Amino acid sequence: MIRRLLAWVLAVAATAGAGVSAQPLAQPLAQPLLDWTEEEVTLIARHGPWPLPPVRDPSNRVSASPAAVRLGEHLFYDTRLSGTGQTSCATCHRPDRNWSDGLARAQGTVELDRRTPSLWNVGYGPWFGWDGAGDSLWAQSIRPILDPREMGAGTGRVAALLREDATLACGYEKAFGDRPGRDDERLLVDAAKALAAFQATLVTPRTPFDVFRDALVNGDRVAAARYPLAAQRGLRLFVGAASCNACHFGPRFTNGEFGDVGIPFFVRPGEVDSGRLGGLARLAGSPFNLLGSHSDDTTGEAGRRTRHVQRLHSNFGEFRVPGLRQTARGGPYMHNGSLASLDDVVRHYSEVSPDRLHSDGVPLVRPLGLSAEEQGDLVAFLRSLDAEVPPRPPVPPLCP
Amino acid sequence: MRCLLVGFSLLATLAAAPARADQLPIFDAHMHYSHDAWDVVPPREVVEILKKAGVKRAMVSSSNNEGTRMLQDVAPDVIVPELRPYRSRGEISTWAKDPTVIPFLEDLLSKRRYRAIGEFHIYGADADLPNMRRVVELASQYGLYLHSHSDADAVVRHFRQDPKAKVLWAHSGFERPEKVREMLRTYPTLWCDLAFLTSHASNGKVAPGWREAFLEFPDRFVLGTDTFTPERWHYVIEHARWSRQWLADLPPDVARKIAYENGDRLFGGELGGKPEGGAVGGRR
Question: Which one is the CATH code of B22-267: 3.40.109.10, 3.20.20.140, 3.40.50.720, 3.40.640.10?
Answer without folding.
Answer: 3.20.20.140
